[in-house]
Amino acid sequence: MDRQGVAMFLSDFRFGFRILGSPYEDRRLVDHAAAFAAYASCDPKAEVGRETYLSAFCFAEDFRRHLVETGSTAGFAGPCWSPWLWFDIDAEDLGFAYKDAGALAVALVERYGAQSGDLLLFFSGSKGFHVGLPTALWSPVPSDTFHRTARRFAEHVAELAAVTIDTGIYDRVRPRRAPNSRHPKTGLHKRRLTLDELTGLPLDELLALAREPAPFTLPAVTGTSDQAAADWQAAAALVASEGETKAARRAAGNGSPTLNRSTLDFIREGAHQGDRHRLLFSAAANLREFGCPPALAFTLLEESALDAGLPPKEVRRQIECGLAAVPHPDPLPKSEGVNPAHQDPPESTQEGLDGSTEVEKPPERNTSDSGSSEGQSCQQVTGATRPEGTRTPAADLRAALAKLWTLTPATSTEPAGASPAKATPAPAVVADQAKGPPLLPPDPPPLKPLPPGAVETGRLETPCKCGSRDYVDVAISGGRTRRDCRNCGRFVGWGKWYDQGGAP
User: Fold this and answer.
1) At the top level of CATH, which class does the domain 3-242 belong to?
2) pLDDT, tens digit, for every residue of 144-188?
3) Which of 36, 60, 311, 446 is least crowded, fewest Cβ atoms below 10 Å from its Cβ?
4) Pairwise CA distance, residues 193 & 153, whole Å
5) What's the predicted TM-score (pTM) here?
């Protein structure tokens, strides 16, 4: 399909939703392009002085009907699309996110031949940065798996750029903070940045810019990228293969539940910051497939979730939502905090940003931003009673848990009631009285060789995330260089950048 044909097809995907206030408030139907443009221009109807969100993806008529009829985005599983492929970079230390965002933006320009002005770069107003790559570079078409393909595409690019991104933002109906909107905690705005500002200004000057919103013009992208098209096709093929593998596994299991490897890994190892919500939700839903009672699910998942950095309230909410997302003969007790579905009052409407009708419903306080059991939904369900003659899944659950514990690194041999012994760290020097002198620890691994394109090496004042202080300057283009960690390859700063190879 040529670009004109794609444009005609995409004209149907004009709907989105807007949230005024916290992410738990009503989803209001809007024309997505008109709403986004209003925030870009700081239109008074956008109310940029408030906390507001827009949907990350655009939808067609089936989404409009779903939102009007249900008053909720939860459970929508239709096709989606987006004019921008977004990358979200967050870090507790904003300095790390600042460096990674600059590295990612340069990598996108270099890999896809995009103009620097084609990217949408934002300081989020709080702990990170948002980077938008225009999909007009390769014109992907809407699909039921567009959001999953976008995630695989983004993960591949982030890996090439050696940066860490939040992979939880690619849910089909996930909201994103609207451009120029004000963050309720910091008071700063989601401010657009140029590539020169992102890569050249000190961080404190970027924060100063975010004290006020600033109108900007949306870029008109005219170029194309064969590399972006190839990367998208590879991501789409991977998503299709994953779907086929999952379907085959379900067929082989004759419909019986399977304890996912990701559930085992979460219980044993936790999760990284960008994926911890999704994996916790998914693990709870997977346990519920075995009829796992809520108390046991909390016991298995809570410690790992807290260790991953989630606050206790969010841990409980994600576990409850994961349990509630899976229909099961055993009803969940109301005392566990999972509320039954409620009846909504009649709809009320109001004028939208572009004059379109917005749907208002009571706050979706127990609903998240998407609708699948893969960490996308926090739905409200009503438990049903167990039909007569239905076999209890307790035996299956016990077998699955037995498998889990046999996969742990060690099995306790302490007698019942005995106090567990504290682990004793291994000494750095081990003496063997029978064989002679102490054995020294092995030598550290040799320093990694200089990568191709490296023009200089040295020592960092502040260590990289991996702990190394060794860096290399790698040539990128036009006499410019970027500075990467010599040990792990992560971007750690700029070498020569300005004036086509000027001073650092």
Assistant:
1) alpha beta
2) 999 999 999 999 999 999 999 988 899 999 899 999 999 999 999
3) 446
4) 23
5) 0.62
